[in-house]
Amino acid sequence: MKRIENNHFQSLNDYVYKIQLTIGATAAATYIIKDNSIVNEWYSGRHDYPENSRSVDEKTQFNVGSIRKTYLALAISLLIEQGRIRSINDEIGTYLHEYKKIANGVTLRHLLTHTHGLMEERGRFVREFPAGANWAYRSPGISMLIKLVHHLSGQHLSTFMRNNVFDVFQLKETGWRTEYHENLIYNYYKDKDTWVGPNSSDEGDQSNLFISARDLAMWGYIHLTKGCLGGKQVLPKSVFERITTLQTPNTVPTHLPRNGFIWWLQSDTPLNQIGERLPSCSYQILGITGCACLVVPKYNAVVVRMYNQLSNPRGYDYLSDVRQFGNLANDLLMMV
Predict the structure, then answer these.
(1) Sign of the CA dihedral 19, 41, 27, 207?
(2) Inter-helix orientation angle 318-334/10-23, to 10°
(3) Is-contact 289 187, C-beta < 8 A?
(4) pLDDT tens digits along 187-227
(5) Lowest-pLDDT choice from 45-54, 163-172, 179-188
């Protein structure tokens, strides 16, 4: 991919740096692809607090938190393409019989759009609201979909993605990490005085997915181009079209968020995390560590930011920040 060197996006980098200082993150990065060229690549800070810690660079891999859920979304779409899932309107209990009772009426569509109405309480799943009646960001839907991938493919999510996507697109700086190495950043909980890094599970069922800024930008780019890379259609367009198309049931009240397969879609709802100035075709995914991947088809662009922070200071407005980040990106992309 061609690289264009200029300072056009410096004001966005300055904003990301300001927020880095505000939230106390030791590390930050931005990466922007536009019109099939790298137009911005910026790194800031260190892997740890001591001054002799490794500097952040292009090889640095961040824990991306809930961004990992879009990798699950692609796995589900691939299983549909392969004919192993008939329809996202099928109930999860059709495939995983242990959920027939507790998830009666809950479809794959509900799980993919956070409208399933299930929550975990004392180690078991309970109903919070009827499926399709509301929206709530809860973990049971993700857990069920991860089990579904294993049940239908015979592979853990991490292996399925490595075989079908990571190796194909050469995403060598993406993976569920079980051991520390120098390219990984740990995420620090200030309040708990603990670090969060690799863990013992390599199955893709835990929050130990680490990605470099350039690999996360490539992840967004794969979606932007609908599976096309270097002029070659690597995966079918339909895999990505269903992921980035509105999938939220029309029974969900209109003031609540709208999703494709996990991805947030642009909308005018109060809970929307995409800047209001971004075009209606935009979609985005975020992680608790502060990482974000924003795709803007109108501008043929992908915008990524990375942080390594898990606890934010009092007074910091997360929603305001991510919207402002998107709005600034929009304004700069318009002028390129």
Answers:
(1) positive
(2) 170
(3) yes
(4) 755 554 445 566 778 899 998 999 999 999 999 999 999 99
(5) 179-188
